[in-house]
Amino acid sequence: MSTAPRTNLLDLDRAGLEAFFTAQGEKTFRATQVMKWIYGQGVEEFAAMSNISKALQARLEELAVIDLPEVASDNLSDDGSRKWLFRLGDGNCIETVYIPEAERGTLCVSSQVGCMLNCGFCSTAQQGFNRNLSTGEIIAQLWMATRLLGQQPGGDRLISNVVMMGMGEPLLNYDNVISAMRIMLDDFGYGLSKRRITLSTAGVVPAIRQLREDCDVSLAVSLHAPNDSLRNELVPLNRKYPIRDLLDTCKAYVGEGRRRVTFEYVMLAGVNDSDQHARELVQCLEGVPAKVNLIPFNPFPQTRYLRSSNNRIHRFFEILNSAGIVTITRKTRGDDIDAACGQLAGKFQDRTRRRVRSQTANQVTPV
Ligand code: SAH
Fold first, then answer.
1. Which strand (E) or helix (H) includes residue 8?
2. CATH number 1.10.150.530 given to 7-65
3. Rounded to two decimals, what is the model's pTM?
4. Span from the CA of 205 to the centroid of ligand 1 (angstroms)
5. Band of the pLDDT at 2, cuts 50, 70, 90?
6. Which fold would CATH assign to domain 70-354?
């Protein structure tokens, strides 16, 4: 048996798989054949791929793996949303959330372990940055959720939408996120349309431009403030890519068509939620094909921010709405299981660390 590390087939989009099979002296159609098994049928064993010869199955066993994470925890919220903590091969944990609604089922997918952007109102920022996820670790979140939700091959689709809004900044893990989204879009992968995949970014301007060329899925931008001085504070990345550049890039992203960019705006009491902020936001978005998503702040331990009152959110909404901006207030889902927006923080790992810390403390505490 070869000692070279085996290729995780989940790391390869269709073009990657074709190259893999070609290098093995196989025909390129093997790529779609294997994708149908993995993504269409949810098969994880080469031996179950019955239209592949025994000889090729044996070769795949030697050269390749289908590497999936372990389920570290599985929590169901009272409102039906479900949060999984997946343990990766190196012990790191990431979170994935499923949000069922009447007309659709949305999976919120992570792109990094931790995050380096340091937005003060986001709990993922508290854990710092650990590493990028591989393509396989990103797409495996869909594979696992599909399996754990009990999706039947060919049955009604339980996951109709994907949002790249979990832990991490997807545009700072560009190549792996693009390959994973290509698998989501591929008819032999998950067959989702571009409209049904939304990538949320804090505003990595050059990467937004590149995204338009490579894989122009729906775009959401975490704006959170209507001027640079406040946004510099809330989203430190703004110091590198200020609001005007960001909004010009957003305009170019959607072009002349009917598409709009979704702007996320977290409602922080006394920080960014005044009438004046709302009016400034209206001005700021003038000429940008925009939708605004107001997100009531989801608190987490040790945060210094508070959620705006419902009245305040309503008033802010009214100002945007009467200025003709399509605005929605996002319902908070999965509160009771810490699955709400911005609460994903690899809790499991934290707990492990705490345990280690308290053991150490016990050793030095006299009894
Ligand atoms: N890094 C990407 C995607 C991850 S965050 C981005 O910045 O867009 C997904 C969304 O949740 C972002 O709009 C983010 O600003 C928001 N968010 C983060 N923490 C939050 C919190 N505590 N309450 C409400 N929304 C939060």
1. strand 7-8
2. yes
3. 0.93
4. 17
5. low
6. TIM Barrel (3.20.20)
